[in-house]
Specification:
Helices cover about 75% and strands about 0% of the residues. With about 260 residues, it is mostly helical.
């Protein structure tokens, strides 16, 4: 028989806000922190984003996983996230009053990073549950979640982290579409070759040319917390690793798979 007084659904936003307040309350752990009202709003954005990304993941899984594989369905969701994140972070940078390092993020930047934080939390669950699990994916998502959490709720290094997110995501729409095209149609078609050129060009410019410059500036800035500087260095090493793999594969005429 159904319960007369069923328990209320879990308050995801409340739990996110509580954990964020414990970790990043103003004046604790060396972070600037975020006031309670803003933090509550950001927690709701994160919780709502998680529900939307989870729903989209389920829809894509039911639509594509059986025919093309579980990673294929994840790539479709990743493409949508990459487009939204690039636009949101680009807008946040455009309305940023000053491109100064080590300052608190604007609300637009915090919302942009909340959307990505929600995505990575949901996608991390998918990676752990489905067949395409790899430790490098786990480490990458863990680092991204930590960095986005610090910037969003810790109230520090706002410009550096939203710029880093933009640089990391700007090449991903073409890269994921390239992967999807490769799996569906193979490498011998004009669309794949066009996406391949776009991916390589965007990846090299964003992550190999501009990325190291931003990393050096962020790491050498004493206003950034040590964790942020370490995270910037690690993520840049990952970008250089994949960049070397892509450039070497293109030089040898091999079809690379990321």
């Amino acid at each position: 028989a159904p319960l007369k007084n069923p328990p209320p659904p879990p308050d995801i936003a409340g739990m996110i806000a509580s954990v964020a307040w414990l970790l990043f309350a103003p004046g604790t752990s060396g972070f600037a922190g975020t006031d309670a009202d803003t933090l509550s709003s950001l927690a709701w954005v994160t919780a709502g984003g998680m529900l939307v990304w989870a729903a989209l993941s389920v829809i894509c899984y039911r639509r594509f996983a059986k025919r093309y594989g579980e990673e294929f369905s994840s790539r479709v969701v990743s493409t949508v996230h990459a487009v939204i994140s690039t636009i949101a972070c680009g807008y946040a940078m455009a309305v940023q009053p000053t491109w100064q390092l080590g300052i608190k993020p604007t609300f637009a930047a915090q919302v942009a990073m909340c959307l990505s934080l929600a995505y990575f939390l949901v996608d991390l669950c998918g990676i752990c549950m489905l067949s395409y699990f790899e430790w490098v994916f786990l480490a990458h998502h863990g680092a991204c979640i930590a960095g986005l959490g610090v910037a969003t709720f810790g109230g520090c290094s706002g410009f550096e982290l939203v710029a880093c997110t933009f640089l990391c995501e700007v090449s991903n729409p073409a890269m994921h579409c390239r992967w999807i095209t490769l799996k569906r149609k193979g490498a011998d078609n004009k669309l794949f070759r066009l996406l391949n050129i776009c991916t390589v060009a965007l990846f090299v410019v964003a992550r190999i040319v501009v990325g190291p410059i931003l990393t050096v500036i962020a790491v050498s800035d004493a206003k950034n917390p040590p964790f942020v500087r370490l995270l910037a260095f690690v993520l840049q090493l990952v970008s250089l690793k994949y960049g070397w793999y892509i450039i070497r594969s293109e030089w040898r005429g091999h079809t690379w798979n990321i």
